């Protein structure tokens, strides 16, 4: 694991690196399948299921408050990257635009390209979650999920859907792509919730 692509955390970084993780040099790209190429003019974002169906454009998102975020990023394949700098829109600000049925307890994140991942409402609605469109001051590159991705810092990064284009609100938990293929339903890195078996 160590060598060209990984390094042992420095002492002061140690307490920020969850068990079983190594620091990546650079920012690896982890994608299952091809990278969708979506421009902001054609980009659309939908909500459905236990929510009033609605469609949003890039301009609708850009009209929401924007902030800078610094967050640590933990991939279940054992690399972590500390202090990733993003610009984005808080999930809680976006949620003020939509009407969700109080019966909704889970959310399926949908993406261009067909990737899905599930998250509980409680994990989704956390203050620190955001939709990101800039990475280190540049427009988010397509391979990292541009033009827009979700970032959920407190869970393994497979929950941070790249090319996100929809939220399906659910009355019960359903499993997304990796969760159906053996990954943990929740994926909390400090508890090493890697696999469901
Ligand atoms: N749409 C989509 N989102 C995705 C993935 C993917 O394959 N497709 N991979 C996930 C995984 S496993 C990780 S670790 C992170 C990687 O993000 P990065 O490529 O920007 O490092 O994106 C997550 N989001
Ligand atoms: Mo990952």
UniProtKB/TrEMBL annotation:
Specify the domain of life of the species encoding this protein: Bacteria
Recorded hits in InterPro entries, A to Z, give: OxRdtase_Mopterin-bd_dom, OxRdtase_Mopterin-bd_sf
UniProt domain Oxidoreductase molybdopterin-binding: residue ranges = 33-178
Protein's name in the database: Oxidoreductase molybdopterin binding protein
Species of origin: Tolypothrix tenuis PCC 7101
């Amino acid at each position: 694991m160590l060598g060209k692509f990984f390094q042992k955390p420095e002492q002061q970084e140690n307490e920020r690196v969850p068990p079983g993780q190594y620091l990546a040099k650079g920012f690896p790209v982890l994608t299952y399948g091809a990278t969708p190429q979506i421009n902001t003019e054609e980009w659309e974002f939908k909500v459905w299921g236990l929510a009033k169906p609605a469609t949003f454009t890039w301009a609708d998102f850009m009209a929401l408050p924007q902030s800078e975020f610094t967050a640590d990023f933990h991939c279940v394949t054992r690399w972590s990257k500390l202090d990733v700098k993003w610009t984005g829109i808080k999930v809680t600000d976006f949620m003020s635009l939509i009407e969700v049925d109080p019966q909704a307890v889970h959310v399926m994140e949908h993406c261009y390209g067909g990737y899905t991942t599930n998250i509980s409402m409680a994990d989704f609605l956390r203050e620190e979650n955001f939709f990101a469109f800039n990475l280190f001051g540049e427009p988010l590159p397509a391979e990292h999920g541009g033009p827009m991705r979700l970032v959920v810092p407190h869970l393994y990064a497979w929950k941070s859907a790249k090319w996100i284009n929809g939220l399906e609100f659910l009355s019960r938990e359903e499993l997304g792509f990796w969760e159906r293929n053996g990954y943990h339903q929740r994926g909390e890195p400090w508890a090493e919730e890697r696999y469901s078996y």
